[in-house]
Amino acid sequence: MGLKFRLTVMSFLQFMIWGAWLITIGVYWFETRQWGGTEFGAVFSTLGIASIFMPALFGIVADKWVNAEKLYGILHILSGIAMFSLTLVDDSGLFFWIMLVAMFFYMPTIALSNSVAYTALKSNNLDVVKAFPPIRVWGTIGFIAAMWITNLTGNKATEVQFYFSAAFSLLLGVYSFTLPACPPPMKGTKELNIADSLGLKAFKLFANYKMALFFVFSMFLGAALQLTNMYGDTYLTDFQKIPQYADSFVVKYSTIIMSISQISETLFILAIPFFLKRFGIKNVMLLSMAAWVLRFGLFGLGNPDDRLWMILLSMVVYGMAFDFFNISGSLFIETTTDSSIRSSAQGLFMMMTNGFGAIMGSFISGVLIDRFFTTDGIKNWEGIWFTFTAYSAVIMILFAVLFKHKHVK
Questions:
Q1: Residue 354 pLDDT level (bands cut at 50, 70, 90)
Q2: Taking a C-beta distance cutoff of 8 angstroms, is the pair 381, 26 a contact?
Q3: To which CATH superfamily is domain 1-182 assigned?
Q4: H helix or E strand, kind and range, residue 378
Q5: Distance of CA 117 to CAs 1, 5, 345, Å?
Q6: Model confidence at 187: pLDDT above 80
Q7: Among 289, 275, 320, which Cα is nearest to 403's?
Q8: 121 pLDDT band (50/70/90 cuts)?
Q9: All CATH 1.20.1250.20 domain ranges in the chain, comma separated
Q10: CB atoms < 10 A from the CB of 312, how many?
Q11: pTM for this structure?
Q12: Which segments of 237-333 are extended strands (E)?
């Protein structure tokens, strides 16, 4: 097999592991287990908790002591074992701790998969800028494929989704040991600066008003990102409780409907260069925030019948909401920070969005939904989505007023 194909298989499996359960765990949690929203928020926050430090810590291990591809394989095997263990759990508290362990092992593999791919491509004298994107896009396709498998096999509300995830993880873990060797680049050199590796050096950027605002708003948008991952599929499935929608396509194939969001994501990536050059980072970020307002508002207004178009449009605008924020934000940091702290600044951006933002969004939304929008196990989805809409609108207005940035074409 050629190198690009081997790395494509790695990327495909990497995100199949996640796609098997990330969108559908809410259906399993609320419909099958009937556990609470506060506890669900805690479980979803494990992604954020693991994202704060674990990728950097295992990055140090790969830089100093262990081949990246071997460490990558070991982590996937351990993550697979933890995901399998979730199927044996009957207590929501224990479920949280096992999921936390699984995420401690899984979240670092996202960065390690990039490291393995970059190292392998460079060692074969291939242009990373040209060769990597077509490989990475298969990760999104793998995510979508896993969502479809979970839905079409009738397992969006069962523990089988965790079996799927565990199986994909174990398969990739074993497969990883066949990948090209990626020896530790810092082996035998001076000790690594752990503070730099964790991205802590970049915290001095908070002394700059504009950068401080950017990172704070990144955290708020990171919180918004979690909300549709957590509740989107559960919301669509809950239409089964309304007799006129019980047998609708949306209810039966809610996960496939949700996968339109990921398909849209792959398409909006192509539009980023045009929008950034023409409108600048502030306006592109505002477009992202406006897309979040639409995403949540259309969810609140939609239904599987005469307003199905609203649900579908909500899936489409997700691509703009996600890409225009995440990728454009990363490019903003790349072009506005000093080269000596650029990597640390990127790490801080991910820490604020996937770490602190994810934790904030998961915990607060779980508590709010439990306390104000759930009665006798029935959720007021209109109230939930309109509250999220208002949240996104406030963030958009504050960003427009407070964030000052002059665009140079």
A1: confident
A2: no
A3: MFS general substrate transporter like domains (1.20.1250.20)
A4: strand 378-379
A5: 15, 11, 22
A6: no
A7: 289
A8: confident
A9: 1-182, 196-409
A10: 14
A11: 0.83
A12: none
